[in-house]
Every structure is written in C-alpha cells, then in structure tokens.
Design goal:
- By secondary structure, the chain is an alpha/beta fold.
- The chain is built from eight helices and nine strands.
C-alpha cells in the first residue's frame, strides 16, 4: 500500500526528482504537500555516508528557475540505523509534518529550497567530502538545483561536520551555519576566509562546551581581522547587514538548533548570499 501511495504521488507531482531513486519501503508525503520526498540508500566508497533524504518543492521543475539548496547534517544520536530517521527531527520534521504554507516560515521551508539530508552510519560527516560533492552535483544536475546557492547547516555532530566540510568545500558553499559544533574537522582555517558564517551555541551547553564555537570565532576574527556580529538570540541578530554572526544564548540546553531553524531571519540570511 505504501509503495502504491508513493507511486501515485509521483505521478501527480511536477517535480523532477528521478523516480529510479525512490526507496519504496518509505511512506510518501500527503499528496497535498507542496514537495516530494525520496530516501536514497547508497554506499559511497570510503565514506561514512550511507544515503540521503531529498526534498524537492513541486514548483521546482526543469522549466522553472533554479532552486537554492540546503544541506542539513544531523546530530550524533541519529548516527547508524535507518536513513529515514533523519526525517523525524528538527529541520526535516518541520518541512514534512504539515502541507500548510500559510505563514512566511512555512513557505520558506517548503517551497523555497531543495533540501539534502545525508545520513552517516559511523564516523564524521567531514570524512565524507567526496560523497557530499557527488550528492550535491547529482541534485544540481537532476533536480534543477542552483550551483551558486548551496548552503550548509548542521547541529552537534553535524555542527562539527559543517565546520569540517566548509573548510574542505569552500568552493561549493555560499554560506554555512554550524550549530553547537567544534573544530575537530577543520583542515585549514584559511579556507574559511570570505565564507558567510552564522554560528550559534548556547553559553552553558552541557553536551558540547560553548568554548568549542567561541574558540573558532575568536581565531577567525584574529586571522582575518573581521569581527563577528554578536547577538543573544537568533531574532535579535542584524541578519540583513552582517555576513558573520555569532549568537550566544544564555541557557544550559544543548538545543541551539530549534531557534535557528524555526526563524524566518535565518533563511532570509542564507538567501542574501551566492557564489
């Protein structure tokens, strides 16, 4: 029944997601949803990435304008297991939970970006550079993604992955947003020069210490002699002016991602930048 429902949804959509990529063991989105979702299981040689979930708005067609791409990197508790588990958490869940587009945020989430949600079976995202390049190139070619507007965000382990991949793939990403991550994967800080970065980390984070992000920001400021705009919340940041932002919310919670990924300001900030 699930396979049949997925097939029906694909027949009715004008999206250009390749039908051959669909894992039909996954439930489809409601036919009223403004996008199409596929889960792709694929082993990439010498990479911790074992597949990815792909969301494409139905309004994105071969004949349409090219759509910007967000790459979302999950946290540590989703490492291993089912690739589709990524869909139950944070940004992916916000996109998929309802077909509604009544608010500006819902339109930004569901009808503005192609969203790539890779999954790792072990290790770290920054160990999968070759696979990430392959996935992004595939989406650009097959799904009308805009190569000039590819953005990267990730939380916790995905925050480490965001810093690490940004330092390896600064030629790809137009802007990055590492959330409560650290420097373990950064290969060369010089590669981050000129990359718009919005960092957020709670000051009393009880999982990844605040100093992990604070140290990176201070090092970049010293190297490039360019200060980060400081804010105490996502909503209070002057996102229309600054390419470099560091948001430090005073709380013990590890969760610095919900505020960022549920803010209209964040997506508008991303859209300011292109390669």
């Amino acid at each position: 029944m699930r396979s049949l429902l997925l097939l029906v949804t694909m027949l009715f959509t004008t999206s250009i997601v390749s039908a051959q990529q669909i894992d039909t063991t996954r439930p489809s989105l409601d036919i009223a949803h403004p996008g199409v979702l596929v889960t792709i299981e694929e082993d990439f040689p010498r990479s911790p990435i074992d597949g990815y979930n792909l969301y494409v708005p139905k309004s994105c067609k071969k004949s349409s304008k090219k759509y910007p791409i967000i790459v979302f990197l999950h946290g540590g508790r989703l490492v291993g297991g089912d690739i589709a588990n990524v869909l139950n958490f944070d940004l992916p869940n916000a996109i998929l939970e309802s077909p509604s587009m009544e608010s500006e945020l819902e339109t930004l989430l569901k009808d503005t970006f192609i969203v790539i949600m890779p999954h790792i079976k072990h290790g770290e995202f920054y160990e999968g550079e070759t696979a990430m390049r392959s996935i992004i190139d595939r989406v650009i070619q097959n799904d009308n993604g805009d190569p000039e507007r590819v953005y990267l965000t990730g939380l916790s382990r995905g925050g480490y992955g965001t810093w690490g991949l940004a330092s390896r793939m600064s030629d790809v990403f137009a802007a990055v947003a590492p959330i409560c991550g650290g420097s373990a994967g950064i290969t060369d800080y010089n590669n981050l020069e000129g990359v718009p970065i919005w960092v957020t980390h709670n000051t009393e984070d009880n999982v990844v210490p605040y100093r992990a992000s604070d140290g990176i920001v201070k090092r970049l400021e010293k190297m490039f002699e360019t200060p980060f705009h400081q804010s105490s919340s996502i909503e209070s940041a002057n996102y229309e002016k600054h390419p470099l932002i560091f948001t430090s919310r005073v709380t013990k919670s590890h969760d610095a991602w919900t505020e960022m990924h549920s803010s209209v300001h964040f997506y508008k900030w991303l859209l300011r930048f292109s390669k």
